[in-house]
Write the structure tokens for this entry.
Amino acid sequence: MRILNIAVPQLFGAIGIALGSLVFGHGWVAVAVVTVVALVSGMISTIGAVASVSGLLLLLNAVVGAGLPMPGEWWLAPLLVSGGGLLVLLLALLAWPLRGGVPERAAVADTYRTVADLLAATDRPEAYDEARHTVTQSLNQSYDLILARRTRHHGRSPELTRLLAQLNAVIPVVEAAPAVHLSGRPLPPELPEGVRHLAQAVETGYTGPIGLDLPTPTTETTRAVDHALRHAADVVAAPDVDPRGIDDRLGRPAALGIRAARAARNVALSAASWRYGLRLALCIGVAQVLVSIVPVSRSYWVALTITFVMKPDFGSVFSRALLRALGTVAGLVVAAAVLSQVPRGWWDVPVMLVLAPLIPALTPRGYGYQTAAITPVILLLSDVLNHEGTDLLLPRLLDSLMGCGIALVAGYLLWPESWHTRVGDRLADAVADTARYVEGAFGAEAVDPPARARMRRRLYRDLSVIRTEFQRALTEPPPTGSRAAAWWPLVVAVERIVDATTAARVRVRHGAAPPSQAEVGQVIRQLRELSDGLRQVDVLYAVRTDLTGPSGSVLEPLRQEVAAARAIASPR
């Protein structure tokens, strides 16, 4: 995973600086090449996290190569960049011979611990919602890590097979948690502690007998947790696991070549990737034309500002542009004090030792803080090379403001999709998938437990992505931001519907009477009507909530959640 995450972006960075250095000083040819690189960078950035960083480094280094003279022959700069990347990769892999398999075990153990926290929070609604999101993220990370590595081993690694079995074994515990949460009664503390005990066994690779001190279950929900926990203990304690009996809950990923070809095809045919690529290319093209016509001392700073601001997967373009401008102003105040008061020479070393750690310290607080921390470091490094002192301040300010202005106008305001985004489209897809999940759990042709588990896991993963997308939309200016804020309760309601469906399935498995097909069909029909309605409007609208059924049915909590979701879909 580290080879993939470090080497691939560095390769694209080397390609970018090679292209940039080849067109340095070639006027309009450089403008055209950098603009085309921006188009490609924007399109490949839509594939995923590694591709996004690769696209960023491709464009960033192309801009630097086209704006600064590189030393020696054209191949020296990419060679030096690759050498730096290989050094970072080597340092990252130094502990690999001693830690083979440790990251996977640690990931599965962490998942068990998040599940323990989930069980401990079942009687506290706010804490439960946060714990459930943490469990979803942890499960995603663990499955991705183990299945990706298992693909390279073709299923023949006993260690990976055992870890996958342990990860699958905790799923029934996760499925039982919503039933406990809906009951409103806290679990005995021995149950969460039992999961933490299993986490310790997973992390250390212990395979001996595991003595769980569990209380006698008295309700359907506690029986479900007790049964799931004892099954997980048996799996964790087993020294050997038959790989033929292990089901990959999310499906084993395809080979790397197949996934690369599929990603390339999707990028080439995706309207979204073309739109983002064209937006980024337009902004970079405008910037390159502008600095070619208007003389500026650091022409590449304008395009670099756009490169960092125009990353929608990093957050709202609108808010990032404003935060970039404010952060630059704050950073220049610090840089002015340093450049005017600190003598050049060895004094730069202690100053850098103070300023550089502020970057990782302030980055989690937001993009504006990150920019404020990076700006004085960049200017101090520039002064070491060029000895311009405070003369660097005004060009940096003007270039950053120009880049932010271009991004706001050419990358945001000129594209109606930026400020007329229909934030309900992805949520409508999730509601439709929820209807299929209910049908798969209780319908006339209910699917088997492994298939149902895959449906639920994909649904939770999609809802996690939707949450991230809505949180990004909340930072947009009106009407997008206010519309996302109005729809946010519906996102939470859909998550509660999935929880209620899982809880009802658990109760049926542990003795409750199954619902009638008429009840199931009514819930499915209401969900599909809600999904269809969300696709047709930009604002929430009034809908009917005529859900009725036996009060003692296992679907009663689900009906209440569906009715609540449809009641939310009304004007505010």
DSSP finds 24 helices and no strands in the chain. Residues 111 and 279 are 39 Å apart (CA to CA). The longest helix spans residues 480-509.
